[in-house]
Design brief:
heterodimer; A: 392 residues; alpha+beta; 3-stranded mixed β-sheet; 10 helices; globular; B: mainly alpha; 68% helix
């Protein structure tokens, strides 16, 4: 008979407490073989001990990896409000087509729960919600509290129901990032300066990416395809993980798991059906990056890479910019996405052809500038919201 | 402890924690007992896997959970058995919303980052000093001007809380407090639990 099936009055909480203490003690410098014997004995005593130990260890042993996320932080300073706290982020309530939506800009409070107030309702209706809703929403970078499960009811009570176009609009500001669980179990992570609308129906889960970039972790549901519209393209998935980014009329799709289908947006009342051309639909397996042009619908460049390479390009998910032999103009364009302070590179051939590498937090513009000034003979001049980079 | 086994257990069993917790919650009314039940399920699975790793870990995990719940329900006479059966048919559905399943390195780091973000300031701070800046508990204590025992207490809380958040434990995520188990002393164990 195993120890576990004997009477056991020790609570899970106490066992976990002991397991955690063991894990800490084991990391101390004075850990001895005798200690190890004691630990082994404790582990052997009861399978609950082993479960608690393995469970805590599986997370604890990975914590040093957090360092890579905080690359660029000055050393010796414990993380301030932290990785996801970006000075440019603010909460913003956006209600699609709802002109009465309050601007909703509030002081950023990294760890405070976000509370939704419906402007049309009495203040007493303020509530915190745990689940994603179907109507106007609030995002916080550091912490998202689930607005409006009952929002529908509030709205209905307030008379807005009949005019509601459906769907929820999410917005991030420049430098912001937010993760949004949707009701179907999927997760959407919005990158800087992104706006999208989510509409769930019985037959389809539809996201319209108005601008910016987002990463989708789609819960499997064969009966309800997950469709992302961006520019004139549709990206269709059943259960998979991929990102969609729009920029300068281009759409870029990066797939990290499963397969997605990329096709032209069907145009209503526009061109003739044959132009919609289902044969141009492309299947993109994991490890693929597809870049399309909005002006030439037929032009889709598909690049096969491996999954780690694609994931590296999505390093913004952990709040970092990974540069690997990246031309300086590209690196600057990347930083500019995350900041209202814009870097401008002088048209100096030597600067234009400089190649840089490194791992930065998206909001660590100053660290990047310091590196350029120290290591690359670059001089930075502040000019209002612009920073001009020239050769020393 | 066998590292390979621990990694297997984390990857194949613990990764389902969020969905498993929902499953137990759905089937069991007493909220205070959820964590105990989950722990008991884990312990059963672990004992079995130490003898021989199941070929279908996820299915085995849910079968274990269901059997345990049925036994408990019989004993307590609180939940009609048929409710458990109904839950069982929803397994597939519940499980499809487990994004952790095939989490790659990057996604794990993403989850870890998100969990870390949700820690209260002090816990984040001590964790950071210990694991990223590699300071000893003693050094942390003198930096913060507190006793070593206090640092250890903070570290333990940080570790447990981070783990709960990482595996998607909703309660910890919402309240920022560790779970307490008022009913813990009343946990019933039945040596004849079926596998």
């Amino acid at each position: 008979m195993t120890p576990n099936s004997e009477g056991n009055s020790t609570s899970v909480s106490n066992i976990e407490q002991t397991a955690a203490a063991w894990l800490l003690r084991r990391e101390a410098i004075d850990w001895s073989p005798a200690d190890q014997i004691q630990l082994d004995r404790w582990l052997a005593q009861n399978s609950s001990h082993r479960v608690a130990y393995i469970r805590l260890q599986s997370v604890w042993q990975n914590t040093p990896r957090l360092k890579s996320v905080a690359a660029g932080l000055p050393q010796g300073v414990p993380p301030p409000g932290l990785i996801e706290r970006t000075p440019f982020f603010s909460m913003h309530r956006v209600a699609a087509e709802d002109s009465a939506a309050p601007g909703g800009l509030e002081g950023f409070e990294p760890l405070a729960p976000i509370v939704v107030r419906d402007a049309n309702c009495s203040p007493d209706h303020t509530r915190e919600f745990r689940g994603p809703g179907q109507t106007g929403c609030v995002l916080g970078a550091a912490r998202i509290r689930w607005p409006l499960a009952a929002g529908l009811l509030l709205l209905a009570a307030c008379g807005g129901w009949y005019f509601w176009p459906g769907g929820t609009t999410y917005t991030t500001q420049v430098g912001g990032r937010a993760t949004v669980p949707t009701k179907d179990g999927s997760t959407i992570t919005l990158n800087t300066a992104t706006q999208l609308r989510v509409r769930l129906t019985d037959t389809e889960r539809h996201v319209t990416l108005n601008h910016g970039e987002a990463y989708f972790e789609v819960a499997r549901d064969p009966k309800r395809p997950f469709v992302v519209s961006a520019a004139n393209k549709r990206v269709i998935a059943v259960g998979t993980k991929f990102s969609v980014r729009t920029e300068d009329n281009q759409v870029r799709v990066s797939v990290t798991e499963g397969t997605v289908r990329l096709e032209e947006e069907a145009q209503r009342g526009g061109r003739s059906p044959e132009n919609l051309d289902h044969e141009t639909a492309k299947l993109l397996p994991a490890g693929t990056v597809a870049v399309t042009s909005a002006t030439e619908p037929a032009a889709v460049r598909v690049r096969r890479e491996d999954v780690p390479a694609v994931e590296q390009q999505l390093s913004w998910l952990t709040g970092s910019i990974v540069l690997a032999r990246t031309p300086l103009p590209e690196a600057i364009a990347e930083f500019n996405r995350y900041s209202t302070r814009q870097l401008v590179l002088e048209s100096d051939p030597a600067l234009q052809s400089t190649v840089v590498g490194g791992n930065f937090r998206t909001n660590n513009l100053d660290g990047f500038l310091r590196l350029l000034e120290q290591g690359f003979g670059v001089h930075a001049t502040q000019d209002g919201e612009r920073i001009i980079l020239s050769r020393k | 402890m066998d590292d390979d086994f621990a990694a297997w257990f984390a990857r194949e069993i613990l990764a389902h924690e969020a969905a498993l917790t929902r499953y137990i919650k759905h089937s069991w009314a007493a909220r205070g007992e959820i964590a105990d039940i989950r722990q008991e399920v884990y312990a059963k699975v672990l004992e079995a896997a130490e003898r021989q790793r199941p070929t279908q870990p996820k299915a085995f995990l849910y079968a274990t959970a269901r059997n345990l719940l049925i036994d408990r329900a019989r004993k307590h006479r609180v939940v009609p058995i048929d409710r458990l059966q109904e839950t069982d048919t929803q397994n597939v559905l519940i499980d499809t919303i487990t994004p952790e399943r095939n989490a790659t390195g990057l996604q794990q780091l993403l989850h870890l980052t998100q969990a870390f973000e949700k820690l209260p300031a002090r816990r984040r701070e001590v964790l950071w000093m210990r694991k990223i800046e590699d300071m000893s508990q003693k050094e942390i204590a003198s930096r913060l001007g507190v006793t070593e025992a206090t640092v250890e207490a903070h570290l333990i809380r940080a570790m447990r809380h981070l783990t709960d958040l990482f595996y998607g434990n909703e309660k910890a995520g919402a309240g920022g407090e560790l779970q307490t188990h008022p009913d813990a002393t009343e946990v019933h164990h039945d040596p004849k639990l079926r596998r």
